[in-house]
Description:
The protein has 635 residues and is of the alpha+beta class. The chain has 17 helices and 31 strands.
Amino acid sequence: MLKNLHRKSLATSLALLLCGYATVGFAADGSAPADLGASNPGQTVNVTLVLGLHNQDALERYIYSTVTRGNPAFHRFLTTAEFADRYGATAGEIARVQAFLKQQGLSQAELLPNHLAIKVSGTIGQFNAAFHTSIHDYRNSDGTTFHQPNATPTVPAALSGTLVVASGLSSEARYHSHHVKAILPPQQGPSANALAKGAAPATPACTGNPTATCTPGEFTVGDVANRYNINPLYRVGVNGKGSTIGIATLANFIPADAYAYWSAIGLPVKPNRITQVHVDGGGPLSGPAGSGETSLDVEQSGGVAPWANIIVYDAPNTDAGFFDVFNQAVSDNQVDSLSVSWGSPEIFYFPQLNGGVDFTDELRAFHQVFLEAAAQGISMFATSGDSGAYDTVRSLGGLLTDPVPPPLTADAPGSDPFITTAGGTTVPFSYSFSGGPTASLTKEGVWGWDYISNYFQTNFGVDITDQVFSVGGGGGVSVFWPVPRYQKFTGGIRKSEKNQTLLFPQFGINYTLPANYRGRNEPDVSLNADPETGYSLVSSLDGPGLLTFSGGTSFVAPQLNGISALLRQSTHGRVGFWNPQVYALQNIFGYGPFSAFSDIRSGDNWFYAGKYGYEPGAGIGTLNVSNLAVFLSVF
Length: 635
């Protein structure tokens, strides 16, 4: 969260001139937001009070039993009411919270049916008094304003053990979408001059899925189907019919964009399939706010499963909005699978980075909802991020050559052990930048843009590392969540590394992460995510027509979401929590032509390299979807 730190940096573009190189580097703004003083005490705000669940150990055991074939509870998923009755806050606890609200003059807007949250409305002055804090207004260097507490809110003693966190006392935009554009679309062929003369090498005919292009940077969902063996399912009528896909997002979008994308690639889809649910008033609608992220989430998930229904839950980009969008989607229990392509470095929740204010209760609040989703059979997918193994670099900058390099970090919510986290690969392709010689990647590998840096260093003697570090598929080791059961017997699982320090002396930050922590490893599975071998999309708020050379793990999470919709149809029921099932299949059956997984043994995400088995770059590998469908139907 870094409530007093707003240094933004993105590897955004590289301008290559015919006679040389001009670069646009990291643009860092090290200024803290200006404290404008106490917020108007009469301003009305909405806050979500997150209630603690009961019997968590028993709940986790039940979740594992629902995805263990032969167990009496196999696929006996709970309804929301059953979950609330077994694991939600009790009637007495809810009554105590309601009495407290009445005493403070706060109004209950809604008790969620899972009994894990109460939405509350009141004035800033009332919340200041209720939680013994002082909410101030702040202005960022870009002119945007927000409010948040300038002192740690205190949970009233009467509610200790019942109330996990009061989410929504801050209105700061906190989360990134994991969507990346190509730094420079690669030229195909031996040189720029040869290309100019029309001497590009011949392109083989594109076969397989009729919507595929077979053109890196312009891939469609048809290319996903070709590469990851989805087409056999389509041929037997598995197209997502009867499934409902959920999208959790922090920006509104234009549904017509999704239909335009499917039409442009020639994909017939179920008509009138999109439903929008605007949580807490809904998210913003604009290109800069991330509406394109929502568009691509719908286009990719709904393109992989063209006959599935889609419900899009969007909320404001705040801590309360992010929690509420999950809570609403899971409590509604209408979707069979749910993906999110927004996140933040896990350590940004830690008190050492927030002036002593501990935000890790928000991680626990998310965890409760993810447990509910798993118990109800909702398969959930999150992105691992697009900053390689160094997740803070996207927000804070930094290079490995710095006196104190940026630390190895994991992304949240993908670091949560009860969500399936999507990693990124680069598929084989040939490329040439700025007239240089053609180079090739011959194997699908862990996505990391060090191959681009190496290209310029080798062919032109130019070091562009500061432009491309650390762009790549996220992955690493959580230093908050312990290693889950399904990873304990998986070869390649790593502990956190030693000497990982985030140093920002101008803000008093000098935090060394726990070393040798046996934490949850992410990602779990991967698909192509490199924008250089990326995709087209339609987002009319970002530009006309098909926008190309887009990528990021934000494509992979919704693709897995669509794949899960296909699996729901092929197995005749909700798949449930993926991770115990896919890890068991990989551990038992390994890799090979009949496996559900393809091992990734090349590439790296700037630290974790592709190798046999699991690694925190591509997880257990990429999918063979048709084989996975067979295994899930039998085992």
